[in-house]
Write a structure and sequence with these properties.
By secondary structure, the protein is mostly helical. It is built from 4 helices and no strands.
């Protein structure tokens, strides 16, 4: 086994994976990680000259369609239900002041 995994590495990986490993599990994890790294080293010995890198084993193409708006967002219909700007500027203020006037409170 050329790749020796330290106890600190196992502790760190355990923290990242949120695992609580006992000593026996830590030793087994060290062996397993070492075996994985040894296998990667073995794969690195292969001659890959002329082999294109790939991100997937199947030929994958972009499956997204062109983003075309067909029915709009309905903002005009939605805004037609909203109160007019005049009501917002005058009516709301009027509604706010009327209870104060009925209680005899002066507003400026």
């Amino acid at each position: 086994m050329a790749n020796i995994i330290s106890d600190e590495t196992i502790e760190y990986v355990g923290i990242l994976a949120k695992l609580e490993l006992n000593e026996e599990e830590k030793e087994q994890a060290k062996k397993d990680m070492g075996a994985m790294l040894d296998y990667i080293d073995k794969l690195n010995e292969l001659d890959t000259t002329g082999v294109e890198p790939m991100s997937h084993v199947f030929p994958v193409t972009n499956v997204f369609r062109e983003d075309v708006v067909t029915n709009g967002d309905g903002s005009e219909a939605t805004l037609s239900n909203a109160p007019s700007l005049d009501w917002i500027l005058t009516g709301y203020r009027h509604m706010e002041v009327m209870p104060l006037l009925s209680q005899g409170i002066q507003t400026s």
